[in-house]
Amino acid sequence: MAGRTLNADERTFGIVIFQAPSEAAARDIMQSDPALKLGVMQAELFPYHIALWSPSGPHQAEKSA
Questions:
Q1: Whether residue 63 has pLDDT greater than 60
Q2: What is the DSSP string of the chain?
Q3: What is the largest distance, in Å, between two alpha-carbon atoms of the chain?
Q4: pTM for the full predicted model
Q5: What CA–CA distance (Å, rounded) separates 61 from 53?
Q6: Tally of domains in the chain
Q7: Which residue from 10, 12, 28, 56 has the fewest beta carbons nearer than 10 Å?
Q8: Who wins on pLDDT, 64 or 58?
Q9: Comparison of pLDDT for 62 and 39, the residue scoring more
Q10: How far apart are alpha carbons 48 and 44 in whole angstroms?
């Protein structure tokens, strides 16, 4: 899952959530991103655990909002 905030000021940011077998593997995935390698963006790695997920997924939630 990937996306960015909709504001266009200095507070805007993007986020990518992906699954990896280990923190080292996640770091390798992150550091191999072409945009990161070219200096287009910066990245930080934060381990993450899903606490709640809608069975219908994010698209269904958007339609009902």
A1: no
A2: -EEE-S--STT--EEE----SSHHHHHHHHHT-HHHHTTS--------------TTHHHHHHHH-
A3: 39
A4: 0.69
A5: 11
A6: 1
A7: 10
A8: 58
A9: 39
A10: 12
Question: Which residues are CB-contacts of 12 (< 8 A; sequence separation ≥ 6)?
Answer: 4, 5
Q: Please answer whether residues 12 and 5 qualify as being in contact, where contact means their C-beta atoms are separated by less than 8 angstroms.
A: yes
Closest CA to 16 of 2, 27, 29: 2
Separation CA 11–CA 38 (nearest Å)? 22
pLDDT at 62: 53
- Amino acid identity, residue 17? I
- Tens digits of residue pLDDT in 19-51: 999 999 999 999 999 999 999 999 999 998 888
Structural domain boundaries enclosing 9? 2-64
Q: Choose between 53 and 61: higher pLDDT.
A: 53
